[in-house]
Recover the amino acids of this structure.
């Protein structure tokens, strides 16, 4: 059974940093692109970042480019999102998702999300 | 960036009725690379449809996706109580991948 479990969310002040983690199991992690998608309170889904199976070719939404860094540890089946210089509009539930292939672009499994709140 | 506009924003229907949800793209979606997701309150999204019309594993045949180019439709032929949720379309034909703003299907 595929499982994705996010952690690392919390309350942080504007300008602060957080590192999100996603522990994956139930599939061959290093065969698949992995993604972060976020959902602001009461709003829709927004793709944030993705990283290819080999850790190369990260992509970022313009809204987070230069502030967020995606990475993965294939030896530990973990995905990460380092978030720096956080702003109020980064407040959201952050989902880790698995690509249906290696970069095909749609997401067949999702975690339950970790909540990030940016506020003073 | 391809902007996806979903309509209506809210659809009020009764169980057993047919639901028709629209997703319109600001430019043609390459090779009909469009997916639909269902999200229930407090839950993660669930993949329903990929490639505009292919049902994901375990999705009942009451869910049907059609369309190409800029116009796509998700039809739920007969609403079950568990189908009342928010539905999102997402294109993956060009970077960046983008989502529509969602259609809420609520009980009338």
């Amino acid at each position: 059974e595929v499982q994705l479990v996010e952690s690392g969310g919390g309350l942080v002040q504007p300008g602060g940093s957080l590192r999100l983690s996603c522990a994956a199991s139930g599939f061959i992690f290093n065969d698949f692109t992995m993604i972060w998608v976020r959902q602001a309170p009461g709003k829709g889904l927004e793709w944030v970042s993705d990283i290819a199976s080999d850790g190369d070719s990260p992509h970022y939404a313009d809204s987070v480019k230069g502030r967020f860094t995606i990475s993965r540890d294939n030896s530990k089946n973990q995905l990460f999102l380092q978030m720096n210089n956080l702003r109020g509009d980064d407040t959201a539930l952050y989902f880790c998702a698995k690509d249906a292939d290696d970069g095909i672009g749609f997401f067949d499994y999702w975690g339950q999300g970790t909540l990030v709140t940016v506020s003073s | 960036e391809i902007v996806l506009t979903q309509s209506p924003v809210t659809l009020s229907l009764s169980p057993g009725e047919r639901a028709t949800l629209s997703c319109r793209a600001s430019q043609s979606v390459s090779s009909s690379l469009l997916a639909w997701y269902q999200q229930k309150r407090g839950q993660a999204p669930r993949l329903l449809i990929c490639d505009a019309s292919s049902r994901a594993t375990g999705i009942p045949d009451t869910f049907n996706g059609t369309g190409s180019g800029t116009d796509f439709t998700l039809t739920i032929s007969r609403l079950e109580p568990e189908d009342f949720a928010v539905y999102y379309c997402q294109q993956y034909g060009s970077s960046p991948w983008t989502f529509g703003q969602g259609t809420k299907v609520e009980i009338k």
Remarks:
- Chain B has a mean pLDDT of 97.
